[in-house]
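Notebook entry, structure prediction.
Reason for the run: the old model in the group folder had no record of what sequence produced it. Starting over properly, with the input documented here first.
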Amino acid sequence: MVQDTAHQAPTTPAVPARALLPLILPALVVGIGASLLLLLVTGLAERLQEVLWGDLPDALGIGPYSVAWMLIMLTATGVMVGLVVWKAPGHAGPDPATLGLTAAPIAPVVVPGLLVAAMLMLAGGPSLGPENPVIMVNVALAFWLGRRLLPRLPGPLWPVLAEAATIGALFGTPVAAALVISEALAGRPAKGALWDNVFAPLAAGTAGAMTTNLLTHPVFDLHLPPMGGPRWSDTLAALVIASLAALLGLAAVEAFPYVHRAFSRLGHPMAALPLGGLVLGLLGALGGRLTLFKGLSEVGELAGNPDGWTAGQFMTMAVVKLAALLVAASCGFRGGRIFPSVFIGAAFGLGAHALVPSVPEAVGVAAGVLGMLLAITRQGWVSLFTAAVLVASPTILALLCVASLPAWLLVTGRPQMQLKEDGTALR
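New structure, fully documented this time:
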């Protein structure tokens, strides 16, 4: 029988293996290097944090998390980062409010200032994570070195490898990198099948994740009480919590351009960043020490005692942390928005559990994180993945897929928590 091929969908020709094999070694090298740089930056920042928030206040006889010390440290962090942004070559990179998980290569001369600004921020307490500045640095180094050492490889390959490698290292698994790259490729013309284009980034993400796992053994599971079989009430709870968390996140997204514009009108980093640090100190005094820093270890402390706070206290921490994220991202601190969003979503979900005890902690946390990340990042796969890995339950992923549908309808087409170069909201 002769098949009618006139109406068959066109197929994308596959890339031959001989074109992919030369990419493996560069991808592995970029992956290992990206992970090592991430571990170096976060390790130095953690040691500096111990000094600033432990050794120094102890030596001065001041409570490390007293209101006075929070105000002093956050304001001083704004002053120090402001000096770096003012004086460092390239002003420690572009305005972080305009950046997402992808980054254009910056000049190598900008890298040292950006690293110093990021480490000071991570140690000083502002509510931002390491992902954006570390991705920018890894992209810059991979692009600069790759073009010189292997000029035959296409230049656009190096930023993609560095992004995937850093994301794999951040999450300790290449799955996160593959999901991000796949989502990014969906909006770009590409030669070959999807897996041909994901092949090299996946290798880089795998190398980055394995290096991180071998050296630090990161664990994202919050060890919440295990769930039983899925119930209709759990599905309803996930739908409601994810949607409400998305709406809360959207409130901050809508305010983002206005808060950013207010700090920009100050006209100088030595005005905007110290003022931002002072505001963050006041917010820290209001929300408590758990609302400081990037939020990853702090969310573990919340989850370790899900009945240790009232619903009002959980919601207060979520709102204060969201306000701190909004201020830190607007005034010029160099950092990313994923890890603080995880804390906000988890606190929101635990607040829902405290308000309605029949809602399992795992459902509350996973749904809250999903809704918040969808609103803040607009990265669907990363939001689902991050929410799922926090709760080691075979039934949670199905609930999250259902809960993501109304939450996505709420956020799609809305402004993102990322600005254009002119300061207007990105949609």
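Summary: Confidence is low (pLDDT under 50) at residues 1-10.
The old model has been moved to the deprecated folder.
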